[in-house]
Design goal:
By secondary structure, the chain is an alpha/beta fold. Helices cover about 40% and strands about 20% of the residues. α5 packs parallel to α6 and α8 packs across α9.
Amino acid sequence: MSHAAQFYIDGQWVEPDAPRPFDVINPATEQPIASLALGNHHDVARAVRAARRAFLPWAATSVAERLALLRRILDGYQRRYDEFVEAIRLEMGSPVTFARDGQAARGPAHLNAIIEVLENFSFETMRGTTRIRLEPVGVCGLITPWNWPVNQVMVKVAPALAAGCTMILKPSEYSPISTLLLAEVLHDAGVPAGVFNLVNGDGEGVGAAIAAHPDVDMVSFTGSTRAGIAVAKLAADSVKRVAQELGGKSANILLDDVDLEEAVTRGIAGCFTNCGQSCSIPTRMLVPRALLPRVDEIARRVASGYRPGPTEDPQTELGPLVNLAQFTRVQQLIARGIQEGANLIAGGNGKPEGLETGYYVRPTVFSNVSPDMTIAREEIFGPVLSIIPYDSDDEAVAIANDSEYGLAAYVQSGDLMRARNIARRLRAGQVHINYPRPDFHAPFGGYRRSGNGREWGEAGLREYLEVKAMVGYGDA
């Protein structure tokens, strides 16, 4: 936290142009843990100049040099792993076990994936007599959200470095501490001056300046669909590339041949991941109508057994939401579900018993939800599951696809071929069949208002590359 009042620009920690203090709040205690400096367009301009100066030398480096740097970053991250865990626990209110095994673990996972990709990636190929060359897109503006601070930063910074790009990063002002720590790791690993730059700020003061800056060649944004639209409009005047990973309302189809106990239990675990603050988690559970009573019994029991509590307790399963605004929004949406006639079978409004301090939400499950209800259509971003009954496989697919979002979908079946056939019909960027383990090489991104472009693995690397065709290269 020693650099919370500074920015990292051109290889050094610098003072902001006109800093505005912003308290970073621990959502479990509602108390400040750091005073962050928020920047402005002058700070962004300074960072862009540094990135522009550094671009050509960095773009000219060899793959071997970039691999060596990424491996040094990985080593530095691993040495300070416990510090990342504590930073995420404090800034996110993430329970310490999940901060260690879920949140912080994403850093090495994505670094290892991009190292594997870069080791085997061809930047030049021949197509007939034309030489196809992939080159770094240039100076990149990276804007990341608060909910997975290390994950969302690493899936942008690591492939941008691997591609030969330079960058300006604006993390969320609500969870910046782990990113400040990552900047220290990058510096100690020897990232050349100007290649990586960090300017803290809010969307209006820094995010907008990055998106609109004419010397930024690409913007990669992760956040709400509303904010993504604003970024795209600001970027349009300079016709820069825009990659977006936005909201989601993912359906989880349980077919009639599943082991209900396992499928419902794991579905709830997926929905409650990160206290429900994830864009791709399965928040709509679609179940055969005839099985609804049994599903309700399992869901009520499982959800009621979840343990909210202090984030330092290794047994805690659910921490608080990230801030008061998010807590208020989730409470309003739970009330809306009750008002619209959904069957509340677990949780509800208010805080869990004994947790009056902190932005804690009761683990909540609604059943017999109709697809037109607000809680079935809006992204809630809290531990709230909507169970929706269906009468046929075709209806389940139709309900799943009836959303403005298309980030992820899930399907569970005792028959793998049947699950695969359903997966092909789902309009989403990622479809998870039978609760698979994470694949950090799988392209991640969405259809429709869930965004455009892809992250993770090779797909993530390609987002930061331009295609050059040298026609006639192979002619005699």
